[in-house]
Fold these 2 entries.
Entry 1:
Amino acid sequence: MANSKYEYVKSFEVVDKLLPNTWIVVRIDGRNFHRFSAENEFEKPNDVQALNLMNSCAVAMLEEFPDIIFSYGVSDEYSFVFKRTSQFYERRSSKILSITVSFFTANYVMKWKDFFPQKDMRLVPSFDGRVVCYPSNENLRHYWAWRQVDCHINNQYNTCFWMLVLNKGKTKKEAQDILKGTQTQDKNELLFQQFGMNYSNLPAIFRKGSCVFKNKVEEIVKHTESGDPVKRLRKKVVVSHCDVIEDRFWKDHPWILDE
Ligand code: ATP
Ligand code: ATP
Ligand code: MG
Ligand code: MG
């Protein structure tokens, strides 16, 4: 490599290596999706195809980058965790962040037509991103719990809000005032009393958000001469809408945190 007197500018680059032996979480969030969703006429409060598109992009992420072991998404956000021992881009923060954001965004644009065949995309989507390292499994578990609780709170509020606006003809201001200061139980009551709606019967994708991870699935690899199937366990990227707050999920999928 030829040297030059200009080479010293390289030394201005700062080292941004992430702490070793920590879980690397990258969270991305759609920029100005309030407007993006309105321009593209997403259904309120939840456009299921928009969520499926986000999930499909997350699946592509896990298939492309083996160090990502789990991800969780809701609304216009997605969080990806890289395994503790990951040496992806030598754990350089800006590399990991920019690769995640650009690969996800490129997929979002590329896959749009698969999920919205009737709609041309209005506005150019973009996502912001951040990287956070978590030292313990407990911290990481609490991270997912934090996002899923947030999903619940927002979804319950939004469900009430849009029911009042779309089905009761309330203005957005009136709906806001009605919901001001209400607790979880009040909102469940409101949905039941006024709309005969049982919140817990709403689709899990809305209430719980989406998990994308590698699951062990049994696969038939061949058949014996007598016609019996020969099965093998294989890891396959799956989407599921499970509870990540309780122990159950982590006990059933120990390989995620144990690597
Ligand atoms: P990475 O592989 O992580 O992207 P990088 O961005 O530092 O590393 P490259 O993208 O391969 O490196 O190259 C960028 C440019 O910087 C190239 O033109 C290369 O010649 C130059 N370069 C890379 N490392 C040095 C160095 N230590 N000193 C001077 N120039 C360098
Ligand atoms: P910022 O750039 O600060 O993130 P934002 O407008 O994206 O601003 P968020 O807090 O990220 O604000 O909220 C995302 C908004 O996108 C939601 O409030 C909702 O209006 C809309 N949205 C995202 N996904 C969906 C969806 N699947 N269905 C309907 N609306 C959605
Ligand atoms: Mg956003
Ligand atoms: Mg958001």
Entry 2:
Amino acid sequence: MSSHGAPIPMTSRACGALTGTAHVPGDKSISHRSLILGAMCVGETTITGLLEGQDVLDTAKAMRAFGAEVTDHGNGRWSVHGVGVGGFAEPDQVIDCGNSGTGVRLIMGCMATSPISATFTGDASLNGRPMARVTDPLALFGTQSVGRAGGRLPMTIVGAAEPVPVRYVVPVPSAQVKSAVLLAGLNAPGKTVVIEAEATRDHTERMLAGFGAEISTEVTDEGRVITLTGQPELKPQHIEVPRDPSSAAFPVCAALIVPGSDVLVPNIGLNPTRAGLFTTLREMGADLTYENEREEGGEPVADLRARFSPDLKGIEVPAERAASMIDEYPVLSVVAAFASGKTHMPGVKELRVKESDRIDAMKAGLAANGITVEDGPDWWTVTGLGHGKVPGGATCASHLDHRIAMSFLVLGMATQQPVSVDDGGPIATSFPIFEPLMGGLGAAIMRTDA
Ligand code: S3P
């Protein structure tokens, strides 16, 4: 089942060269944060380039339920009239975050230190994902939570009426957990300190500073020590959301495996906490160049140019790079199928608790299409067959996971036989223009009857 309706089966078959320019949508992580931080200021925040995927639309709806005025002006232009730090109203309805782990975890954080309660739910995927990783640190502020067994949604959060600041060492490499604690720390008096051993995406820290919060990051032997001073008055901003490197990954990887391709993907943020995939692809021998490198809004940005790469080689992907490409492993495993030799991907336990268990989901679908995958609790290895040699021909389960669905559709662009997915519906959560965008480059993706 797709997250918001009947399943949408899709099939992708080998096509001619992919060529042209692919303007991918706005960054999902930054889009969620723009709406949430906008809701925590008094005054009007304006946003351009917002990702209008279902995940972000669900966050917009949630911010309205907490009292912010969120307006869609068309074409990715949005405004948020916020209620200020500590100004959230108690929602009179259940907050449905759909498929979005980022949405629910960040929103839990930002309401956790206000004297209000809220009940959260989501689709079957989200309701199966662990929330204790967020409610455990929130409890240190004085927040209470009651959910289903194993800390699953639906769950009610009772915000702390008199929050205390916390010092928290994040036990898993997760920007969602780090961000939930920082957002909760906004309405606690004094200094909240979050320590992460491995650097994860730092959009929350950068954006909090942009909104005028007092926040600093120090790199120590313990890792990154982030200190936030609570109860600031956040100042409304104008935010231009950069385009999403995680969405850019799909046209880039497709171009590398489809013979003759040459695709330009402009304006992609190359924040080092997000760009691990592109480094990895270059190490595999990908013809991937950064053109027009520049800085925008304090972030490195470039136009990516990806061309068919006949000599891809399997590599060892460094475990310490995992956090900077955590959402890109599914599509990397597709590229690895067309490389020669093995691609070993260690240090990726977190892949097991995403929208699906992404190692299991990719292993099953790749195996059905003729590719051998070995795995353990926190690693997996794909044995590549080389260009032109991947059989394909099977239907893969997407498990309510947008990135699994898109990865298998990319696979089918270069296999001997077409590849199908049982449900492409979840693609709309992060990349609603995936089909026309890929079709515009020359891909042959069809909706097929159930
Ligand atoms: C995100 C963090 C990552 C990532 C997700 C977006 C964010 O999750 O997988 O798609 O915006 O903070 P984790 O923090 O659980 O690793």
